[in-house]
Amino acid sequence: MGTIPDHGTYLFVSNHRSFYDPLAFLSRIIANPVSKAEISSYPIIGWGSNLTEVILVDRSNRQQRGITKKLITESLINGSSILIYPEGTTSDLEYTRDFKIGSFSSAIEAKVPVIPVSIEYKDEDEYWTERSLYKQFVQHFSPTGKTDIYMFIGNPIIGDDPKELLKETRNKIEKQIEKLRDYRNKS
Predict the structure, then answer these.
(1) pTM confidence score
(2) Bridge-partner residues for 11, per DSSP?
Protein backbone atom coordinates (compact mmCIF):
# COMPACT_ATOMS: atom_id res chain seq x y z
CA MET A 1 0.00 0.00 0.00
CA GLY A 2 1.08 3.56 -0.53
CA THR A 3 3.35 5.08 -3.13
CA ILE A 4 7.00 4.27 -3.67
CA PRO A 5 8.91 7.49 -4.36
CA ASP A 6 10.45 7.40 -7.83
CA HIS A 7 13.33 9.77 -7.10
CA GLY A 8 14.96 11.71 -4.27
CA THR A 9 16.78 10.91 -1.06
CA TYR A 10 14.84 9.75 2.00
CA LEU A 11 15.19 8.32 5.46
CA PHE A 12 12.89 5.29 5.40
CA VAL A 13 11.79 4.46 8.95
CA SER A 14 10.03 1.16 9.64
CA ASN A 15 8.74 -1.01 12.42
CA HIS A 16 10.64 -4.31 12.72
CA ARG A 17 9.07 -7.78 12.88
CA SER A 18 11.52 -10.25 11.31
CA PHE A 19 14.96 -10.63 9.77
CA TYR A 20 13.03 -10.85 6.51
CA ASP A 21 11.82 -7.21 6.75
CA PRO A 22 14.81 -5.60 5.00
CA LEU A 23 14.79 -8.24 2.25
CA ALA A 24 11.12 -7.53 1.51
CA PHE A 25 11.70 -3.78 1.65
CA LEU A 26 14.82 -3.82 -0.52
CA SER A 27 13.06 -5.91 -3.15
CA ARG A 28 10.99 -2.77 -3.88
CA ILE A 29 13.07 0.26 -2.83
CA ILE A 30 16.73 1.23 -3.10
CA ALA A 31 18.19 2.30 0.24
CA ASN A 32 21.18 1.47 2.41
CA PRO A 33 19.99 -0.38 5.53
CA VAL A 34 21.31 0.16 9.03
CA SER A 35 21.70 -3.06 10.98
CA LYS A 36 23.24 -4.49 14.10
CA ALA A 37 26.88 -5.49 13.66
CA GLU A 38 26.11 -9.10 14.60
CA ILE A 39 24.51 -9.78 11.23
CA SER A 40 27.92 -9.74 9.58
CA SER A 41 28.47 -13.20 11.11
CA TYR A 42 25.11 -14.64 9.99
CA PRO A 43 25.17 -17.23 7.21
CA ILE A 44 24.15 -15.82 3.81
CA ILE A 45 22.77 -12.56 5.29
CA GLY A 46 26.20 -11.62 6.67
CA TRP A 47 27.85 -12.38 3.34
CA GLY A 48 25.34 -10.13 1.60
CA SER A 49 25.77 -7.33 4.13
CA ASN A 50 29.53 -7.40 3.63
CA LEU A 51 29.13 -7.07 -0.15
CA THR A 52 26.70 -4.17 -0.02
CA GLU A 53 26.44 -0.78 1.66
CA VAL A 54 24.79 -1.95 4.87
CA ILE A 55 25.74 0.37 7.72
CA LEU A 56 26.59 -1.83 10.69
CA VAL A 57 26.35 -0.57 14.25
CA ASP A 58 27.64 -2.06 17.48
CA ARG A 59 24.65 -1.17 19.64
CA SER A 60 26.53 -1.80 22.88
CA ASN A 61 29.20 0.79 22.06
CA ARG A 62 28.11 4.40 22.57
CA GLN A 63 31.03 5.77 20.53
CA GLN A 64 30.19 3.40 17.64
CA ARG A 65 26.57 4.56 17.71
CA GLY A 66 27.80 8.14 17.29
CA ILE A 67 29.96 7.10 14.31
CA THR A 68 26.96 5.32 12.79
CA LYS A 69 24.80 8.45 13.17
CA LYS A 70 27.51 10.43 11.37
CA LEU A 71 27.60 7.82 8.55
CA ILE A 72 23.81 8.03 8.21
CA THR A 73 23.95 11.83 7.98
CA GLU A 74 26.78 11.76 5.43
CA SER A 75 25.01 9.13 3.32
CA LEU A 76 21.82 11.21 3.26
CA ILE A 77 23.73 14.40 2.40
CA ASN A 78 25.50 12.53 -0.42
CA GLY A 79 22.20 11.37 -1.93
CA SER A 80 21.90 7.80 -0.60
CA SER A 81 18.59 6.90 0.99
CA ILE A 82 18.73 5.03 4.29
CA LEU A 83 16.47 2.33 5.76
CA ILE A 84 16.41 2.18 9.55
CA TYR A 85 14.49 0.32 12.23
CA PRO A 86 14.60 2.80 15.14
CA GLU A 87 13.17 0.24 17.56
CA GLY A 88 16.64 -1.31 17.49
CA THR A 89 15.35 -4.89 17.39
CA THR A 90 12.46 -7.03 16.23
CA SER A 91 9.25 -6.97 18.20
CA ASP A 92 5.98 -8.83 18.53
CA LEU A 93 4.33 -5.95 20.38
CA GLU A 94 0.94 -4.81 19.17
CA TYR A 95 2.50 -1.71 17.63
CA THR A 96 6.10 -0.58 18.18
CA ARG A 97 8.84 -0.31 20.76
CA ASP A 98 10.15 3.14 21.62
CA PHE A 99 12.13 4.70 18.76
CA LYS A 100 15.73 5.90 19.06
CA ILE A 101 16.10 9.55 18.04
CA GLY A 102 19.51 9.66 16.27
CA SER A 103 18.40 9.04 12.69
CA PHE A 104 15.69 11.71 12.96
CA SER A 105 18.38 14.25 13.82
CA SER A 106 20.32 13.00 10.78
CA ALA A 107 17.32 13.55 8.49
CA ILE A 108 16.92 17.11 9.75
CA GLU A 109 20.63 17.86 9.41
CA ALA A 110 20.68 16.43 5.86
CA LYS A 111 17.41 18.20 4.99
CA VAL A 112 15.72 15.01 3.74
CA PRO A 113 12.16 13.81 4.35
CA VAL A 114 11.31 10.82 6.49
CA ILE A 115 9.06 8.19 4.95
CA PRO A 116 7.17 6.04 7.47
CA VAL A 117 7.01 2.37 6.46
CA SER A 118 4.94 -0.26 8.22
CA ILE A 119 5.32 -3.99 7.84
CA GLU A 120 3.09 -6.82 8.99
CA TYR A 121 2.89 -10.53 8.31
CA LYS A 122 -0.17 -12.60 7.54
CA ASP A 123 0.67 -14.86 10.45
CA GLU A 124 2.02 -13.32 13.65
CA ASP A 125 4.06 -16.52 14.15
CA GLU A 126 6.33 -15.03 11.48
CA TYR A 127 7.56 -12.38 13.95
CA TRP A 128 11.11 -13.14 15.03
CA THR A 129 11.30 -13.01 18.78
CA GLU A 130 12.44 -16.14 20.59
CA ARG A 131 13.35 -18.49 17.71
CA SER A 132 16.94 -19.14 16.74
CA LEU A 133 18.16 -17.72 13.45
CA TYR A 134 18.26 -21.26 12.04
CA LYS A 135 14.60 -21.96 12.90
CA GLN A 136 13.54 -18.57 11.55
CA PHE A 137 15.48 -19.18 8.33
CA VAL A 138 13.99 -22.65 7.84
CA GLN A 139 10.48 -21.30 8.43
CA HIS A 140 10.91 -18.65 5.75
CA PHE A 141 12.93 -20.53 3.17
CA SER A 142 11.83 -24.16 3.36
CA PRO A 143 10.23 -25.57 0.18
CA THR A 144 6.89 -25.79 2.02
CA GLY A 145 7.23 -22.42 3.73
CA LYS A 146 5.38 -19.37 2.52
CA THR A 147 5.52 -15.88 3.91
CA ASP A 148 2.87 -13.26 3.14
CA ILE A 149 4.15 -9.78 3.94
CA TYR A 150 2.13 -6.57 3.94
CA MET A 151 3.90 -3.22 3.61
CA PHE A 152 2.56 0.33 3.78
CA ILE A 153 4.71 3.17 2.47
CA GLY A 154 3.53 6.49 3.87
CA ASN A 155 3.86 10.04 2.64
CA PRO A 156 7.08 12.00 3.29
CA ILE A 157 7.30 13.91 6.57
CA ILE A 158 9.48 16.98 7.02
CA GLY A 159 10.33 18.51 10.36
CA ASP A 160 12.84 20.66 12.20
CA ASP A 161 12.57 19.15 15.69
CA PRO A 162 13.87 15.57 16.02
CA LYS A 163 11.54 14.73 18.91
CA GLU A 164 8.47 15.94 17.03
CA LEU A 165 9.60 14.22 13.82
CA LEU A 166 10.07 10.96 15.73
CA LYS A 167 6.66 11.28 17.37
CA GLU A 168 4.86 12.04 14.10
CA THR A 169 6.64 9.21 12.27
CA ARG A 170 5.85 6.69 14.99
CA ASN A 171 2.18 7.75 15.05
CA LYS A 172 1.94 7.35 11.26
CA ILE A 173 3.57 3.92 11.39
CA GLU A 174 1.17 2.75 14.09
CA LYS A 175 -1.86 4.00 12.11
CA GLN A 176 -0.50 2.26 9.02
CA ILE A 177 -0.11 -0.97 11.03
CA GLU A 178 -3.84 -0.78 11.82
CA LYS A 179 -4.66 -0.40 8.11
CA LEU A 180 -2.43 -3.34 7.21
CA ARG A 181 -4.10 -5.52 9.84
CA ASP A 182 -7.54 -4.58 8.53
CA TYR A 183 -6.43 -5.48 5.02
CA ARG A 184 -4.79 -8.72 6.21
CA ASN A 185 -7.92 -9.77 8.10
CA LYS A 186 -10.12 -9.19 5.03
CA SER A 187 -7.89 -11.22 2.70
Answers:
(1) 0.81
(2) 82, 114
